[in-house]
Amino acid sequence: MKSLRNTFLLLIAFSIAMGYLESAVVVYLRTIYYPTGFHFPLVALDTPTGIIEIIREAATIIMLTMIAFIAAKTKTQRFAYFIFCFAVWDIFYYVFLKIETGWPASIFDYDILFLIPVPWTGPVLAPCLVSLTMILFSLLLVFHEDKIVLRLKERISIFAGSLIIVFSFCYDFIQYAISNKIALNRNSILSSMGNFVPQNFHWWIFVLGEMIFLFVFGRMLRSKQ
Fold this sequence. Notes:
The protein is mostly helical. The chain has one domain (about 1-225). About 70% of the residues lie in helices and about 5% in strands. It contains seven helices and two strands, in the order H-H-H-E-E-H-H-H-H. The protein has a two-stranded antiparallel ribbon with strand order 1-2. Strand 1 (about 110-115) and strand 2 form a beta hairpin. The mean pLDDT is about 90.
């Protein structure tokens, strides 16, 4: 148990450092592209710059995956450590942005969350709620690993809930792309970002994904008892 606590402390330190690094990169980008303050529509990125940004995002996921593999001793721990680091990184990214720039002014301010495979957008509150769920889920998985079995049904539910939540972030842009007959290829997506303004975050889709997670969470607690 002491070893697990120490591992989590090291993972927290790593993830907080990553959160600061990510916020620093975003501060530089916003200073260059949004000197008067971050806003929608986004500045359309040229293809080379956009590809660099997409690869940078992919690199952060690879880093989080590798630290989970290094720290873990079992497959369950690998998954748990990955989602734990991702969640802590995401929360502290917003904490540091708030300290450095004063943004977001509100937890309901819209942000561009990710660019793979299409732009993800949503109020800051939404990814923070997902992160808190991931932290609780990962702690339960690791500290009660010997009492919990993730059966196929639970694994499918986790995957389905994840897809639904991702879809809730991508839905606005997908609707925009369909309405404006924008091809879903990299060049078209990057060039169209200069006209895209998120209109409405579909909370009902997001909540559906969260409810699936909470359902699995509840089943795991009952199985532990």
